[in-house]
Design goal:
Elements: H1 2-7, H2 14-21, H3 27-37, H4 51-63, H5 67-80, H6 85-100, H7 107-115, H8 121-131, H9 133-142, H10 148-157, H11 160-173, H12 179-184, H13 191-207
């Protein structure tokens, strides 16, 4: 019966039983329960506010050095802490600290911050993108035109690899505010940068 309570999302005890497992001394049980809670419940099952659930998930983030736990905590927060301003603020501070210290951050946590309008999103994504532009440029673009000034800064100061990525992002989200700096890069010594700048200008002008 306990197994059914833990594994059947339609069971009335499902959430409470799995929540209790998050503080189990057996790490395997913690991971199993967390994986279940990180899975979107089936249609018809209510996703209700559970302060204790959010507290446990944040505790696991603070304690966890395990990448699987960190990733699934992020996925679970996306489900159970949606629009929870206090949780978003706390998670934002945790993830911002991690990004400053060079710690690996799963996409689930970045997505949680983005989806809930965290003020820390831009800073976190910028730090991650600088280290791995190919992986994080799509998330940078999701920030929208508010990051234009930061991308202009990277065009002025960052290595060519980042310049190229910044131009690709501006092609997607740039506004006419970025045109003056983009025009300057049409005459760059690197042919790829010339082409990317021209494409970004063309895309922005088509949106005007």
């Amino acid at each position: 019966e306990t197994y059914r309570q833990m594994t059947d999302p339609t069971n009335s005890s499902y959430l409470v039983v799995n929540l209790d497992q998050l503080s189990n001394v057996n790490l395997r049980r913690v991971k199993q329960a967390l994986e279940r809670l990180a899975t979107q419940p089936p249609e018809g099952v209510e996703v209700r506010k559970m302060p204790r659930m959010v507290e446990e998930l944040i505790r696991l983030l603070r304690e966890g050095s395990d990448s699987e736990i960190t990733d699934n905590s992020g996925q679970a927060l996306r489900i159970w802490a949606k629009d929870d301003e206090a949780a978003v603020e706390t998670v934002g501070k945790i993830v911002s600290s991690w990004s400053q210290n060079g710690r690996s951050i799963p996409t689930s946590l970045v997505e949680y911050l983005l989806e809930n309008g965290s003020e820390d999103s831009a800073l976190v994504i910028d730090r991650l993108w600088v280290k791995s532009p190919e992986r994080w440029s799509v998330y940078y673009a999701k920030l929208g035109a508010v990051v234009e000034e930061r991308l202009a800064y990277h065009l002025e100061t960052s290595p060519d690899e980042l310049k190229k990525s910044a131009l690709g992002i501006l092609r997607k989200i740039g506004t006419k505010k970025s045109l003056p700096i983009l025009v300057r890069f049409k005459d760059h010594q690197d042919d790829d940068i010339n082409i990317l700048a021209a494409r970004a200008i063309s895309a922005i002008e088509s949106r005007k």
